[in-house]
Structures are given as C-alpha cells and as structure tokens.
Amino acid sequence: MTQPNVTLRGPDVPNTPGSLDPVFTVEDLSVFYGDYEAVRNVDMMIGRREITAMIGPSGCGKSTVLRCFNRMNDLIPGAHIKGKILYHEEDLYGDHVDPIEVRRRIGMVFQKPNPFPKPIYDNVAYGPRVNGIKKNMDSIVEEALQKAALWDEVKDKLKQNALSLSGGQQQRLCIARAIAVKPEVILMDEPCSALDPIATTKIEDLMQELRQEYTILIVTHNMQQAARVSDRTAFFTADVDDAGVRHGRLVEFDQTTRIFTKPSDKRTEDYITGRFG
Amino acid sequence: MTQPNVTLRGPDVPNTPGSLDPVFTVEDLSVFYGDYEAVRNVDMMIGRREITAMIGPSGCGKSTVLRCFNRMNDLIPGAHIKGKILYHEEDLYGDHVDPIEVRRRIGMVFQKPNPFPKPIYDNVAYGPRVNGIKKNMDSIVEEALQKAALWDEVKDKLKQNALSLSGGQQQRLCIARAIAVKPEVILMDEPCSALDPIATTKIEDLMQELRQEYTILIVTHNMQQAARVSDRTAFFTADVDDAGVRHGRLVEFDQTTRIFTKPSDKRTEDYITGRFG
Amino acid sequence: MASANNRATAPGPNRSLARSRPRYGEAAVKVLLLAAALVSIATTLGIVAALLEPTIEFFSEVSLGEFFGSTSWGPLFSPPSFGVWPIIVATLEITLIAIIVAIPLGLAAAIYLSEYATPRVRKIFKPVLEVLAGIPTVVFGFFAFSFVTPLLQDILPFSLDPRNALSAGLLVGVMIIPIVASLSEDAMSAVPRSLREGSFALGASKMTTSVSVVLPAAFSGIVAAVILAISRAAGETMIVAIAAGFKSIFTFNPGSEMATMAAFIASAGSGDAPVGSIAYKTIFAVGSLLFIMTFAMNWFSARMVKKYREVYE
Amino acid sequence: MAILSTPRSQVDLVGKGRPLREHLFRIALLSSLAIALIFLALLLAYTLTEGWPRLDSRLWENFPSVRRPETAGVLSGITGTLWIIGLTALMALPTGVLAAIYLEEYADNTRWYNRLIELNIANLAAVPSIVYGILGLGIIARWLDFGFTVMTGAVTISLLVLPIVIISAREAIRAVPPSIREGSLALGATQWQTIYRQVLPASIPGIATGSILALSRAIGEAAPFLMLGAATLVRFNPDGVWSSFTVLPLQIYNLISQSREEFHILAAAAIVVLLAILLLMNSLAIWLRNRYQKRW
Amino acid sequence: GGGDTATPADPGTEATGGAESAPAALAGEIKIDGSSTVAPLIQVAAEIFGEEQPQVKLAVGTSGTGGGFEKFCAGETAIANASRPIKDEEKAACTAKGINFGELRVATDALTVVVPKENTWATCLTVDQLKKIWEPGAEGKITSWDQVDAKFPKEPLKLFGPGTDSGTFEYFTEEINGEKNVSRKDYSPSEDDNVIVQGVAGAKGGLGYFGYTYYEENMDKLTAVQVDSGAGCVGPSAQSAQDGTYTPLSRPLFIYPNLAELKKPEVTAFVDYLVANIATIAKDAKFITLNPEQEAKLKTDSASLKTQAG
Ligand SMILES: Nc1ncnc2c1ncn2[C@@H]1O[C@H](COP(=O)(O)OP(=O)(O)OP(=O)(O)O)[C@@H](O)[C@H]1O
Ligand SMILES: Nc1ncnc2c1ncn2[C@@H]1O[C@H](COP(=O)(O)OP(=O)(O)OP(=O)(O)O)[C@@H](O)[C@H]1O
Ligand SMILES: [Mg+2]
Ligand SMILES: [Mg+2]
C-alpha cells in the first residue's frame, strides 16, 4: 500500500491497547431515527484522558454515535438506541439516569461555533449558573477561559458580546463554556470545519493541552486532523443492506498509528489512501 | 517530503504545459464583494478539453473565482472584478457582452444538487427552452441524459418529479441539464460534497467521459478527488494583509502530477501533506 | 478510580447520574404552556358551541331544502323566506372581484420584492405593505363609499347604486393585497437560492427564472396565501356593510347593492331580532355556514401545503 | 456540436433582443406595487383633506354629541379603544407567547393532538371577525354572563388576535438557531432554563414586532363590536372592566351612518386619529425589527 | 366640553332653574338600548343631563326596538327605547325574568316618505299608490314611476328604506301593506339614514321613507311627499302629526323604564329630567313634540311609575 501522507503524533503516544482505562464502554450499540437504523452494532471503548477520533465518509453516522454519549439524541423525536453505553460502570441509558446530569458531566462542542448572543462572561458563566452555582463565578470564568487559551485575548472585554469574536475565538469560547461546568469528557463534532487554518491549528494545540485533564472524543472529516491529534481512531463507513437501506457501521477501532499505517480492513485502507471517500 | 498518498491519473495524462490550448485566460484577476477584495491577482489559463481542479482551504476564494467564469457573481449586489478574463480572445466582462449568453456557453453544476421541482424531462428541457429552442426536444433531452449516464435509470419515469431521485441521480440530472444547452465549458463547484461515496465515484467516472467533449473546471475540498480526476490543479490559499484583512490568492498552478509530487511552493506542500488545512 | 480524580470540585465518576433534585417546575411549566395552547382549542369549541344550538334549532324549523333550494332571502320579512343563495352569491361575487384585484397585484408585488428589489428597497416596501394591511376596514369602507363609488359613478358607463358590490369588492381586494403579497413573498424568499442559480446558470433571464422556477417552487406557499386572503375577503364585514349594503336580492350585477353573509350577520345581529325568534337563529345559521366555508378552505389549504411543502429541502 | 463549429476567435457573446420583454415585465411588477402604494397615499390624502377642518383638540377632548356636531369629539372612543387594547395586550400576548413556546419547543409534531392544535390555529386565523362577534355575544356576554362590557370586548378581541400572536411568536422563536438550544442543553441546562434564558431573550424583538402588528389589527376591528352591541353614544370614559364602552372604529362607523355632513367630517378626522395611532405602532414595530434584527 | 356657550334653546339652563333641580352629584351607570328612531331623542336628553350630572354614565345603544327589549327583559338595560308598543311575547319574556316595567310615550314621529328635489310629479301619493310601490307583489314588477300612476314620467323607481329589523319598517309595512314586515325585498335597506338620504337625493326616480327627524335634517336635499289616506293630501309636520291628521304614518314613540332600576336615584333623576324637559329636548333633537294632553299624560304616568317603583 501507499504510504499515507499523514503526520502522526510521535512515539510519545503513551497509550497502548493494554493501558486503555475506559470511561465509556459501548456494547453492541445501534441507533435509530424512528424506524430507520442509522448505525448498527458498534462496539468500542473510550479511554480516559485520551483523544479518540471518529472518521469516515459523510452520512456514516459519526455524529449520530457521538451524540449518544451525552444523550443529545434524546432531543430528536423518535430517536432511540439499542445496546448499551456504560459510563464508568453505569448504564448511560438506565432508567434512573437524568440526561441533564449526563450533559453536565459530558460536555459538547459543536461544528459551527455557537456562542450565545450575550457577553463573553455570561457565556462562560451560563453553565455553572444553570447548575445552581452562584459563588466564585469570576474565578470559574477566568479559569475556564485560561484553560481554553482565550483569557489573554478577551480579558479586557468580558462584557462585550460574544458574537463580535472571530470564528476561532468563538470556538475556543465554546470550549471554555464547556469546561466551565467541569465535565469529565468533552465531545467535539467537527469543531474546526468552520474555521480557517490558523484557528484550526490553535484549536488542535488546545486539544493537546486539554488532554492532560479531559477525555476527548472528536468527529472529523479531516483525516489529517485525526492523525495529528488523536490517540485512537474509530473508522466508520456506511453499507447498504439487502433491502437497499444504508446503515452506518464501525469498521475498525484501534490506535491511530496503527489505523494509519497498518489498517486491518481493506475499506479503511482505501479511505485512508484516498481511493474512496 | 513525505510521499503524498494520492492516486494520480496514470501516465496517459496527455497534456503537457506546452500543449495547453486555452479556453480562458485569466489576467491579474481580483474579485471584490463591495469593498472587500476577496481574491487578489490571479493569473491562470484553462485548457480546452482538460479538467482543471481548484483546491485550497475553506474561504480562500475558489468558489468566488469559479463563479467569475460564467459571470454568476453579477447576481450578487456589489460584486465586481478587476483584471481580465478572456474567453477565447474575447473579454468576458466587455461592455457588449450579454451575461445570459455567457451562461449559455458556460454551464455550471453546483455543490448541492439543485434540480427544479418539476418532472425530470422538464428539468433537462428547461435550458434549451429558455434559449428559444422548440424542436426536437425529445432527442435533446435523451442525448443529454445519455451523456450524463442517467438515461437508463430514468428513461421510464421522465414525467416523475426530479426531487424523487437520489442525491447522486439528482447531481447527474443537473449535469444533464447543463449539457442540454450544449455549452463549451462546465464549471463544477464541489459537485460531490453532498454525495455518498458510490454516487461520487459515478460522477467522477462521468467527468472523465465528459472530458472528451467539454472543458471542465472543478472546485473541490477533497484533495484525493483533485488528484484522481484533474489534469491541472490550481492551489489557492488565503493570507492576511497588513490591515488584518484576509485575501484569497493563487499559490501555484501546474499539472496535477507535478502539484502532488513536486510542488514548488512550501504552502502547497504543507497542504498536500496534511500539515495544514 | 475515584482517586484518580484530582479536581476537587469535579463530580466523581462514580457519583450517580441520577437526578440530584426533583424538577417539578419543569413539569408545571409544560402544563402551563399546554394550557395556553389549548386556549385556541377552547376558542374553536366556543365558536362551535355558540353556533351549534341555534343552528340546529334553525334547521328544525327551516328545511335544508329551503335553505339551499331557494333564491329568495328575507328572514325578517313576512312571510319570511330562507333561500340563502342571494347572500352566498353576493359573498362570492365580492370575493371574486377582490381576488381579481388582489392576486395579480399581490403576486406581482411579491415577485418584485422577492426577485427584483434590492434589500434596501425591500426593507422600505415591506413595512409599507404592513401599514396597508393594518388599515382598519371601516376606513376602507368609508373610502369606498364616499370616494370610490362617486368616482366610479362618474367614469363608468353603467349605473351604480350608491352602495354596490363593485366598489366594495375593489376595496376588499385592496385590503387583501398585503396578505397575498407578504405571504407570497415569504414563500418565494424561502425558495432556495440554489434553484435560482441553477436557472441563471442555464442562461435563463430574471423574468424566466421568476416565472418558471421561483413561482412554481413557491406554489404551496402562494396557495396558502391566496386562500387566507380569500377567507378574509369572504368574511369581511365593515367594508361590505358600509359600501355594499344590505339589499338581499338574487343578482349578479356588480353595480347593484347586495348583502353578503357577513353583512347580513352584522345587520341582523345589531338589529332587533328577538332571542329565540327564527330571525335570530338565522344569524347563527349563516354564521355556521360562513365558519364551515372558512374551515373547508383552510383544510384544503393545509392539505396543499402539506402536499408540496419543502419537497426541495 | 454547435459550439465546436464556432470559429474560436469570433465567439459572439452579445445577447439577442431579450431586454424589451424583460423591461416590460419589470415595469408591470413595479406598477403593481405602485398601485398599492398610490392607493394608500390617496386614502391618506382623502381622509386628511376631509377631516382637516375638525383635526384639532376638540376631537380628543370632547365626548360625542348628537346635538353639536361642530364641537363633538370621539374621546370615549379613544379611551374605550385604549382599554380594549390594554386588556388585550395583557391577555392575548402572554397566552399567545406561551402557546407559541409550547408548539415550538415542546410539542411533538407526530402527536395528533399537537397537529390538531396547529391546524386549529391556522384555521382560527382565517375565521371572519364577525364570527368572533357571535362567539362574544353567545358565549362571553350571555353564557359567561360578562354582559356588554369592556371585559367582554377585550376577551373577544383577545381570542381574535390570539392566532396572529401565536403565529408571529412562533416565527420569532423559530428564528433562534437550533445551535443555541443545543449549546445550552449540552451544558446541562434544563429545557425551561434553555427557553427562559436563551430562546426567549433572543426572540423578544421578533415577538414584540409581531405582537404590535397583531394589536394594530385589534385596534381597527369594528365588526365584533357590532355584534356585542357596544353602545353608540357613550359620553363617558370607561372606569373599569365592567363598564360600558365604545371603540373608535365603531364610533367612526356610526358617524359615517349619520346624514349630517358635519358628522362625516368628524368621521374623517377620527379616521386620521386612528391611522395616526396605527402608523405609530407600525413604526415602532419596524424600528424594533431593524434595531434588533439578529445576524447569527 | 366645547359647548360652553349655551344656545338659547339649551334646556340645560332651563332645567337648572326649574322646580325639580337635580339633587347633588349623582353617580352610576344607566344603560339604555332600543329603537334607533327614538335614540336621538334620548341621546340629546342624555347629553344635556350628562352635562349636569357628569358622574352619571349614560350609554345609549341602538339595537332596534326588538333588540332593546331583548336586553331589557334580560335585565341588561335600565330603559328600553321603542318605536312601537311592547309585544305580548316580549312582555312574557320580561315577566319570566321578573322584570316589571312601565310605558312612557315621549314623542311622536311622522314617518316621512321622501323623494329628491328634482321629483316634481309625486307631490302627493295615496296609501294605495304607496302600497302598489311597496307590496311584495311589486317586487321586480313595479320598477318605473309610470307604473304607479300613468301620469307620472317613465323614470326608474329606486327604493330606499330602513332595515327589516327596525320598528320603522315594521310600522310602515303594517300601515301601508296591511301586515307587519310584509314588503318587497328589492329595495335598499339601511339602518343608516345617510344612505337613504344619499340614495334618494342621488337618483331622480328615488323614493324612501324614514323618521321625520331625518327629513328635517335634510330638507335642502329632499321633498316630503304628502299622503292621502282618503281625507285629502296631508304633509308630515309637527302640527299634522300631533293632531293626528297625518295618517296613517304618524306614530307614538316610547320608553320603557325598568321599575327596579327606577329605585336608583340616578335613573329616577334621568327619567324625571326627561319628563320635565320633554318639549325642549324634543325640539332640540328635531322630534315632533307631544301636544299638551299627551305631555300631561306623560307627567302623570311617570309620577305613577315612581310610586309603583316605590
Ligand atoms: N434527525 C435525523 N432524523 C433522521 N435521520 C437522521 C437524522 N440525523 C441523521 N440522520 C441520518 O442518519 C445517518 C447518519 O447521519 P450522521 O449525521 O450521524 O452522519 P455523519 O457521519 O455525522 O455525517 P457528516 O459527516 O455528513 O456529518 C444519515 O443517513 C442521516 O441521514
Ligand atoms: N456574497 C458574498 N459577500 C461578501 N463576501 C463573500 C461573499 N461570498 C463569499 N465571500 C467571502 O469571500 C471569501 C471567499 O469565499 P469563497 O466562497 O469563494 O471561498 P471558497 O474557497 O469557495 O470556500 P469554501 O471552500 O468554504 O467553499 C470568503 O472570505 C467569504 O467570506
Ligand atoms: Mg456529522
Ligand atoms: Mg466554495
């Protein structure tokens, strides 16, 4: 096979499969929109303080799976799952589980930066506030902005409307907003696809830092990005069943180095090498 | 440098720079939206019966430049150009030039398939009709659908609404619609980005066929696609000027093989090898 | 694993994901909101309740055959006659005149605003249309009666009654222009840009694009706009009461005075028909008919919209 | 193929005689718009010139009079209208906004009852105002025994404008991008927190604009009041919700019906007042819309 | 108010000087509804009374005689105006609701048949001719003046009249066509006297009828037709209506106060005021005043009502 043109994270990648300390364990997960089974039989594990990338062609269900991790799909009428997602040892879809509590623990950053049309400060303070925190708000906001590498750029204009920030700054603000509720996991759905290259680089650097403290799951269209930032990669694709219906499917899940150098599945190889997708 | 992982069109690529027979000659083109100079100082040539790809990161002005070739930008209030585009030897923006006539000669296919909500037949017949052609419509429609490799799939349901077709079929219908007015050039702006891999493959095959008769310009985000289908590639990027304003810019324009193997510009190399973008 | 959590304030991974405190407020809010939405159902029920009993009583005294089988209308005359056609015909005639005025003008204005006008022009003209839409119908009636009718009497070759269907119809038409224009404009603006570009890219002119791509694509929205306008026209009361009058004879002559259904309700309702009298019940029977007609048109409109809506999305 | 036979150096890009038809079409479109506007101007000019002799403070300082048309005013109509509008705003706006929130944020469209509510609202928006008059007469005045009072009028008018308020509020709420909601929910906000803290503040300008336009419809209504038998000669201002009243449009209707010319002049002057109030409200709506229009 | 300069005819001044000077500041609301023919009279009374007692709120509606009784018998109004005596059914409805009332004749009306000034031929019409014009059988047939009388010109007949729901219509049809509400339908009915005035004045062949008041207001545009009921042509006037020579179209106008409401001082005050100043009020409202006997009867009737009410 052709040598893929991806710059992989160096040999400092600490994780080996054996060392995976799972935050999520996905067991035979299928996701439905009404009757339509969008994704079928996914098994994977998300390691603590790792970056896991989900790649694959458009429509293969990456976003669908990602949104299962914080029960965002609950909001879509008719959406439901089969199978299990364990968060630590707890069933994420168990009866007693409160999705609102879930979303507080598992933050999310979206494709298009979506700051609230409010001052920067209020954007960051929003999460803590809705969770009933009232004290020390200033320091919570500052800490979150620091961690999101945005503090220096905005510290003098915290009262300014967040929409006046540039795209890259807005996305980092959204990350700060997610961090401010002190989640354990951050889900990111193509967080850079609306950004320019410079902003993208900043976000990627930030992800590397956040990785010290948080577990990160990222969906990306950009193979290079997956290769650059992630520890593990899940490759999804969609295939058509006998009835002519397309279903998303997890093809391969492994360490990123391995996926990009020695994929065990032909489809992964084709995709990586640009023969398809 | 790393060997790019692109599958290049084989050694059968006939064109060498010397053999370029220009349909368009772009001279020092700058494009403005109101006061904002979106693209600066582009010089390039589009060869007859070649496929020319335009690649580059988002926002670098690929679409903007493409839409200059059929004066689509005229429809945007405030948009105007500086510099020249010669179509054969004629100034495309000359005073006497009728943009409607231009668009008849230079067809266009869009990112998202946009069939009219009408029967398939009427979609294809639309172009000839607005150009005053009344006779032999059936054969014009059939021929166009044949060329777009769609005839067999739709010949029994020409009266059916075009919106009932699948995405890939819709896109081929849009190509048929463009062909039906017998243009010389077809412009395509990310024609596959809304399609699944199978449909994409079909469109790419189709482009190879159309290349026998038409001059094709394609904008694509997908480097692999550019490498697979094009004869020549123009690589654009955006840089920020002293005033902090971003302008699109043509970095390199050359045979595709060369761009992907021996780019002469560092930025091209970075982009191709996934170090950036 | 809990020990690995070095952030003091962070929730321990083993802390349950169960609801930390009950949220009765959320449920209460939802009930309140639903109650607000149900007010509209209550309104409809109220209308039906108000109409139903007197209508049933009416039809126990007057046969459907007489109601729909005769062309003589005079519930307050003696002997009373209950052939509803004169007021239906008057209603339809005025509505017809109105839509003949409003559809071409409204649609043309909509095409202009949506396809031709620059954003600045649109920003000026849409509010002006809204102003036109907000003018009270008494004002239109006054204008029709005291300005338009005398004017028409001067310029038209045939004779016009001081109150007549023609000027009332014209003014009802003007009244509904903004409805047609504004809602059609919304529908046309909602047609994706890509369709227009597709048409332009084939060498089509602006006119062709507007007429053969945008209009058909916005068809369902336009139908909905027109139907809403028709129901407004059919139910309009003040303009016809002032400018078309209350004469209930069976005529198609637009120069003649005639009473529409709404005008009949208004005049009989503000008049002296004693409660319980057949004349009084007539008001409700006509009201029911008007309500059913509106309902039928809207049902049709909803079906049209559903059938064609956003198939291209 | 045609293009291939074209000698390359002589590709002729000059158009063929399209412009005339295009121009005529454009002119036809513009004149349609112009007709509507000319009409508006004519109407304003006519009422203004007709009413000019009586456009002075007597109009809003004096009560109506059958004895002295020269000095009669429409004070009770103005105050009655203000009462009705005030109460309508109090009743219809909150109810309408809450209903709109329910339909946009909570209602599951696959449920039949939610679809029924929607269809019902669309239908109510088209029900003739005279039918609301029947509702007011039969249910509110008689059955609920509210009598022929300000309250009856206000409830009737509230129900009349409710569908309009709901429809415009829904549009304003829908204009708030879903990404804002998702952003909030993803932070662990509850649905009501999301609505109350994000969706509502962001849609308030739109809701306000729609509400003002709905209220301006309410101001001009006369037909339901005909059914409610609001008194024609009211020489006092309502002092509460259980008071008798009249409204400006109804007073105008009555003035038009008088045979003495002086009353027609008075009617025209009253129309100018009514139109002035409406223009004011419309301008406010436009200003709100332009000022707070959001670009996401 | 703007009417500070009292006209000499202003009964307000007279009343203050009168014997029953109104008691100090009354308050409350008096709802009156009924005949639109009687309304102007009551409105004038309400207006003048209101100037003296600004705290008393008088709302005068014009729902028609029947509509007025309907509200009256439902207890919604204090006084009903009527252009005809109350009917037995209406009495029964009132009794059923426990409403006791009295009847006061407050003025006289002369239904006036009008034609435009250009009409020079129809100076006097017999009751039979009027019937020929207005009977149901005339509908669509009698469409020209020469069909009424061969001597008249061949001018198209355009008919205007009050709405079918008014007491005026009821009275006119009874007197002319012999039965209540029996009439041709192809005339322009209107509650709104302006339309009748405009319509008749605007058509050479126009003919309409309405209360005398409206004729008085529009004498410059319209001519009143004399009516011949067998005793020669008589035109409508205060004189002919009062002395009963204008037959059959002169009629009494009434108000019906609710006795329970009469207990309220403001209602009594208003009725007293109306009775005491009836002549000037009627004149001011351009109504035909009562003749002395009728006025005397009004005073005794109202006095006995007050004792009945207690
Ligand atoms: N709300 C929904 N209702 C029904 N089907 C949906 C919904 N959202 C997504 N789908 C379908 O589910 C499948 C997977 O969609 P998903 O958005 O997860 O793909 P993706 O891999 O994220 O694609 P992309 O790369 O384009 O974002 C697709 O076929 C899509 O059409
Ligand atoms: N109608 C417009 N008005 C103003 N600016 C515009 C307009 N269209 C595009 N631009 C700006 O011009 C620049 C180039 O845009 P363009 O759409 O050509 O980029 P592109 O290379 O096609 O990007 P993409 O890959 O995202 O499609 C961008 O900065 C964009 O914001
Ligand atoms: Mg996705
Ligand atoms: Mg583009």
UniProtKB/TrEMBL annotation, chains A, B:
- Please list every transmembrane segment annotated in the UniProt record, as residue ranges: none
Q: Which domain of life is it from?
A: Bacteria
Q: Does the keyword Transferase apply?
A: no
Name the SMART domains for this protein: AAA
> What is an example of a Pfam family matching this protein?
ABC_tran
UniProt cross-references to InterPro entries, sorted A to Z: AAA+_ATPase, ABC_transporter-like_ATP-bd, ABC_transporter-like_CS, P-loop_NTPase, PstB-like
What's a GO cellular component annotated to this UniProt protein? membrane
Q: Which UniProt keywords apply?
A: ATP-binding, Nucleotide-binding, Translocase, Transport
For biological process, the GO terms are: phosphate ion transmembrane transport
* Domain ABC transporter, first and last residues per copy: 24-263
Q: What organism does this protein naturally occur in?
A: Acrocarpospora macrocephala
Supply the name of the protein: Phosphate import ATP-binding protein PstB
Q: Which GO terms describe its molecular function?
A: ATP binding; ATP hydrolysis activity; phosphate transmembrane transporter activity
Gene name of the record: pstB_3
From TrEMBL, chain C:
**Plastid: present as a keyword of the record?**
no
Q: Name one GO biological process term.
A: phosphate ion transport
Origin: domain of life: Bacteria
> Topology relative to the membrane, per the entry?
Multi-pass membrane protein
The record's section on InterPro entries has: MetI-like (IPR000515), MetI-like_sf (IPR035906), Phosphate_PstC (IPR011864)
GO cellular component terms given for this protein: plasma membrane
Query: Which CDD domains has this protein been placed in?
Result: TM_PBP2
Give compartment(s).
Cell membrane; Membrane
Q: Where does the ABC transmembrane type-1 domain start and stop, copy by copy?
A: 88-301
Where do the TM regions start and end?
Answer: 31-52, 84-112, 124-145, 165-183, 204-230, 278-300
Q: Which UniProt keywords apply?
A: Cell membrane, Membrane, Phosphate transport, Transmembrane, Transmembrane helix, Transport
- Which family is annotated? Belongs to the binding-protein-dependent transport system permease family. CysTW subfamily.
Q: What is the purpose of this protein? A: Part of the binding-protein-dependent transport system for phosphate; probably responsible for the translocation of the substrate across the membrane.
Q: What is this protein called?
A: Phosphate transport system permease protein
Q: Mind giving the lineage of the organism this protein is from?
A: Bacteria, Bacillati, Actinomycetota, Actinomycetes, Streptosporangiales
TrEMBL record, chain D:
The superkingdom listed in its UniProt entry is: Bacteria
Keyword flag Manganese: no
Q: Which UniProt keywords apply?
A: Cell membrane, Membrane, Transmembrane, Transmembrane helix, Transport
* InterPro entries (UniProt xref): MetI-like, MetI-like_sf, Phosphate_PstA
Q: Which GO terms describe its cellular component?
A: plasma membrane
Output the GO biological process annotations, alphabetical, semicolon-separated.
Answer: phosphate ion transmembrane transport
**Record carries keyword Cell membrane:** yes
Q: Which SUPFAM superfamilies match?
A: MetI-like
Transmembrane region positions?
24-48, 82-103, 124-144, 150-169, 199-219, 263-288
Q: Where in the cell is it found?
A: Cell membrane
Q: What GO terms are given for molecular function?
A: phosphate transmembrane transporter activity
The annotated topology with respect to the bilayer is: Multi-pass membrane protein
Q: What range(s) does the ABC transmembrane type-1 domain occupy?
A: 78-284
According to its UniProt record, which protein family does this protein belong to?
A: Belongs to the binding-protein-dependent transport system permease family. CysTW subfamily.
What role does this protein play?
A: Part of the binding-protein-dependent transport system for phosphate; probably responsible for the translocation of the substrate across the membrane.
Q: What is this protein called?
A: Phosphate transport system permease protein PstA
Q: Whose protein is this, by species?
A: Acrocarpospora macrocephala
